[in-house]
Amino acid sequence: MTLQEQSIADDKMRAEIAKLVAETSEINQNMKYRFWVLMAAYVSAMGILLKFF
User: Fold this and answer.
1) Do 14 and 22 contact (CB within 8 A), yes or no?
2) Transmembrane segments in this chain: where (predicted)?
């Protein structure tokens, strides 16, 4: 493998890593949002149940 081919391979690997980091960041943001929605649903359900008992 020539020096230029190695440089291109390194750039490709860096681009793949950057893509994975960006996707992971997006997933983490969605998980935080999902946590708060589920927590609100849980608290609402508990409030309704406690109101009947």
Assistant:
1) no
2) 33-52
| Rounded Cα distance, 9 and 35, in Å | 39
For 29-45, the pLDDT digits (tens) are 777 778 888 899 999 99
pLDDT tens per residue, range 5-26: 999 999 999 999 999 888 888 7
Taking the alpha carbons of 38, 44, 46, 48 in that order, is the dihedral positive or negative?
negative
* Residue 6, CB-side half-sphere exposure with 13 Å CA sphere: 3
Q: Which two tokens stand for residue 10?
A: 């390194």
Taking alpha carbons only, the member of 43, 23, 41 closest to residue 33 is 41
Name the one residue in this structure whose structure tokens are 């997933």: 27
